[in-house]
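Revision sheet: structure tokens.
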Amino acid sequence: MILQKYIFKDIVKVQFVCFFVLFAVFLCQTIIKLLSRAASGSIPVKVVSELVLYSMPNLAYILLPMTLYVGIIVSLSRMSSDSEMVVMKSVGLSGYSFMKICSVVALISAVLTAVNSLYLLPHATYEQKVLSESSKSNPNYLPIESGKFSNFGDYTIYIQKVDSDAANKNLEQVFVVKSIYSLNKGKISEFICSNKGYLKIDNQKKQWLVLEKGFIYRNDYKTGSLEKSQFRLIEIPIPTEEKIEYDESNFKGIQTSDLIKSNNIKAKIELQWRIAPIFACFIFAFIAVPLSMINPRQGRFARLGPAILLFVCYYLALLSFRNLLNSGTIPLYPGMYLVPLLFIILVAIPLNLESPKIKFKKRKKFNNKESKGN
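Predicted:
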């Protein structure tokens, strides 16, 4: 019992360290991408932290099964290279005992993966989509700052002061430049200046820049004339980015219970994709145990390279089957469920049958009579 607790704790410890390190690395990459988008103005700076939070379940989708796999291999390989495995087997701990311990760890990881994949991931995807849509229609999230130029389609806007605390973002000292191309008159530039303005959204969720009491200067490059006119109220439309639609994004934010009830083929494919990492926890636990039974002279990381290659092949096969299902090339059932079945038959079972067994030489029993005679 003590040895089993020791093996269990060592596997969980290695898995936790691997998950923390890899999660931190991929999360930093996500933060860098979001910051670059915020710097270019495609997303507001205020929503970056929330988008980072909603991207975490997507990272854990693959990292939970992978770190379980790596944790078992690294932990048991270390025990084999340090000859701890020899001592454990000499006191009666069999290969079945190692498989049972790894199955318990795989069950815990599978539960965490199921919660993440079936609940947290669709919820985070839905909230991320809602946040992106609301940031486009919320004036407080528009990329308008004090003392900076902002481009909105044909308009270039400079605002001296922006009151961000206000509900509609009150503006002071606003300057707008617009170039107009006419077939008859050629290029015409308009320069609009106003002491104050604000942002508003109409009933159709369209954004407008409203300016009060200002002047419009129109310059005709063909004739060289300059016109000046005064206005009491003018509204300038602010264009919004077109929504980018992906082929498989319609069902990513739908709850799993709704996918189960749906008869849509795309919904069933998305459901299979969410269940795939749960199967992966058990499959790679069964693969990791025989791969970690190495010769002490080989080193603790001798099988890590081929093990990672098997993991990559598994997820590449899942992606391939997913594309085939979306294109209608293969039937919905068995669909992606065929990938774990093939890995069990072609990889897990042969590895467990052909895993090297550690043999121990039996000690010779000395005869008491012979020892007394000598």
